[in-house]
Amino acid sequence: MKVIDKLAWLEIKDNRILVARSKGKEAFYIPGGKRELGESDAQALIREIDEELSVKLHEDSLAYYGTFSAQAHGHADGVLVQMTCYMGQYDGELKAAAEIEEVSWLEFEEMDKTSHVDKIIFKDLRSKNLL
């Protein structure tokens, strides 16, 4: 079984979660990405968020939230995505960059606009009264 190992940054304000949509894609996803060789979770997440959203995460504020897995969106059956999630503070103004076409804030009821693993994360956040 193939597993796509990804990191995600959970940013929540006013019971809405920050999501992004890549150019040419329909689904929104919780921002983040894959580690490069030798990168720690923090290094990879800081790099990915800077590339995608033009903000700098504070490494010392990153707090592990949880790890979730599900069928990978848009991949063959049996390909799983494993998402290791962190929360943390940032500096800068959020704006779409690189392959990101749109940044949005979704409410719990809008989770159908996201990938399979993101729906699991939405439900977990709701169970903890964070969304």
From TrEMBL:
It holds the Pfam family NUDIX. Transmembrane segments: none annotated. InterPro entries: NUDIX_hydrolase-like_dom_sf, NUDIX_hydrolase_dom. SUPFAM superfamilies: Nudix. Residues 1-131 form the Nudix hydrolase domain. PANTHER family: ADP-RIBOSE PYROPHOSPHATASE (PTHR43736), DIHYDRONEOPTERIN TRIPHOSPHATE DIPHOSPHATASE (PTHR43736:SF1). This is DNA mismatch repair protein MutT.
